[in-house]
What does this fold into?
Amino acid sequence: MTTLSERNIGPILFFRGFAEARVHLAALVIQCGNCPAPTVSDDQGPVTAEPLARCGDIQLLRFQFSLPARSGAAYRYNGARYALNADFQNDVRLAFVACNGKERGDQERDPVVRNVMWRRLGSEHARAAFQLLLHGGDQIYADEMLHAHPVALDWIQRRDLSPPDAGTLAILEQRLRADLFQRYAQLYAQTDPAWLMARVPSLCIWDDHDICDGWGSLSAEQLDHPVGHTVFRVARECFLLFQQACTAESLPPAFLDPTGSSLSWSVQTPGLSIIAPDLRSERRPDRVMGLHGHRALRRALHRARGDRILVLSSVPALGPRLSWVETLLPLVPKLRKYEDDLRDQWQSRAHRVEWQSFLRDLLESHAAPPAAVTVLSGEIHLATRGTLDSAVGPLHQLVSSGVTHPPPPEAYARGLGWLARFGASPLPDHRLRLHPLPQRREVYTAERNYLVVERQRQQWRAAWELEVGGRTPPLLI
It folds into this structure.
């Protein structure tokens, strides 16, 4: 990992809410070394810097402010003007991205090649500005932080699960924290995503790679191990700091669970509610969300009645039937390593009852027009879409990933497409179907991509931007 020079990285904007004709924001700045603190001002004057956290030579500063809810609103950073589209009353443009990295060697990639889709997204924003940037999970691939200490590698590879002593755990926590601070700082220092994140406020929900591969679907022995607790604690702290610009002691009002057991959140703008259930904090091999997560989701859905609802389910809510594959895995020893990956999906037989409950909650809100529900997901490094039939029209699932993760082989995408042909509907009288993207033949598209969701004259539509195939025709949702 390269050492960061003395500089300020940022600003990275985060959306805090809409109230009284103003948009409320937080700007995160990563201060490296002895670089002087930056200055920030909104339309009402200078904004005070709040120290959030420090680790070694890295300090995090937060600036909280608001701007008039109109297009062309602006704040100043070190005297330079940064314009935003803060008009949520009229037409709205949202960008959705997921899977911003890869499991090994992400920081060694050529940024010109890595960030092709970020660069394209920035160019699109310059032509027609987005109001929000939605991040659907795996914003960082933290897996390699486990190389910071041998006990972490022994834990994830199940070589040695004997509990370390307190001194070793303390050193482990220090090293993981220092490593993850560096990784986040280097991620946000990359020119193309940084340009966009300074001009479009972000909303983020996490997934497994923001912690480590398969978190929550690992064995109970690993999840309950002292090293597992340490890995989760450090990843959670850094998720809150770097993806929410907050600490565990001061969660923003958007968070739905006052206990912090679930990091689910919901925000409202005129005519639109965005809800992000946390599918990782309470996850176990036999569940996706715990009691706190399900309560938070139902509360948010009830509060959103009358709005168009976007649900950020980091793991796709609609997908192919996996029970046949799970049955075959134990018969093929070389494939047993994929059991955790299959258990990660809503469609795993381990989650079927909970999955049905999750879909019923979504359908209940979807059945009360105009509160149509659309689910946005990433995670699978492919683009696809699905529908769940209902009496008032289909509930749409739009999948877009990854924005930088390399696509899997075409054969993998075709294999998933073959499985999709045998998909069984999880709920009676609600047929589940998976579809190709508009004007594509295969159900799954193996290209890097991002998604654009728009409200134009009260009509909602979505389109994918594909690295090779370009823009898909708009899909009415």
Q: What stands out?
A: The chain has a mean pLDDT of 94. Residues 183 and 318 are 32 Å apart (CA to CA). Residues 166-188 form the longest helix (23 residues). DSSP finds twelve helices and 22 strands in the chain.
